[in-house]
Amino acid sequence: MTESVSAEADPTRPLAGVRVVEISSFVAVPLAGMTLTQLGADVLRVDPIGGAADYHRWPLTESGDSIYWAGLNKGKRSLAVDMRAEQGQQLVAQLIADCGVFITNVAGRQWHSYDTLRAVRPDLIQVEVSGRADGGTAVDYTVNAAIGFPLVTGPAELAEPVNHVLPAWDVTCGVYTALSVVTALRHRDATGRGQHITIPLENVALATAGNLSLLTEAMVNGTSRQRIGNAVYGTYGQNFTSRDGVAFMVVALTNRHFRDLTALTGTTEAVAALADAVGADFSGEGDRYRHREALSGLFADWFSAHTGAEIGAALSASSVLWERYQSFADTAADAKVTANPMFTELDQPRVGRYLAAGLPVSIDGTYPAAQPAPALGENSATVLSEWLSLDGGQIDALFAAGVVA
């Protein structure tokens, strides 16, 4: 870990000088800690000896190391400690009190509760992620099932729920956690007081569903969103397949988009005739959505008559919003990764050399680059020395007693 520099010296590290202790597993809080690291904070992930529940999560390398764990812990320090032992608990509590910022999704431990730690560090900032607001447990996939999204995902004719592969609420919750730390730091600078912030994963999903009108629609109109396959609700969007089997997603949000789509598919007159026949006004998104199946039938003939290359060239010359469907392997080899300044080559011990994403935010034209994830417990000795000013004898005694590893 490089030595912290001031924000004035490096504007891409506005949180330089901030220290954070993280006790976590899985997605939300590890993502928050990594985001804070990429903004310049010195983040220490504390794990039990042997690793937390996510230390061996798939995907794995051939040697059994977790690519997943390395991906969400880039740039952090790592301390492995026996948190079941009283001495280990005291050590971690001392580290938290020393740095004054603590993020976690591990609830129910009195020794690192906000009230306990605040007694030692009155201006403590502590952000806790939980499953539910009532204290119940939940994960992204169970929260998603309870909100309603799996029942509107998938083909219209499908009767069973479809879970999305993206843990959207974990990711969103991680960003909210990082944002909460930043705002709490500002509050502490202004008032001298810390804050206890709790973020239930379920509330993040509920707020998003409400903000996107999915819940409000049911409350106000008495209707519930239905499955529409790959169409886009309230406007025109649909997937098409080329003559040589290339799949495309096409979206026409504006009148210009729609006019260009009808022009390039040679359906301008047919679309006008359809509008007359059904009494529709396709200058409005609503009618384009209501009659999406008939419109898609007209457009599909052009897509099926052309190759993927021909379609890509025609769409690129228009204002229509579009993309080819790609696999993760396709994307990894695409210029949007290989020529993207957000990605830099990273030599990750135990995983290999690859292009790793840094912070997805450009600061004064620069993307903060990814840094390697530590090995479990890699920084145990240096953290105890630098953060707690323990001498070599004291550190050796902790290792000998099995308190740290």
Automatic annotation (TrEMBL):
Alphabetically ordered keywords of this record: Transferase
InterPro entries, per the entry: CoA-transferase_III_domain, CoA-Trfase_fam_III, CoA-Trfase_III_dom3_sf, CoA-Trfase_III_dom_1_sf
Query: What are the protein's GO molecular function terms?
Result: CoA-transferase activity
Query: Which SUPFAM superfamilies does this chain map to?
Result: CoA-transferase family III (CaiB/BaiF)
Q: Which domain of life is it from?
A: Bacteria
The protein's name is Dehydratase
Organism this protein belongs to: Mycolicibacterium poriferae
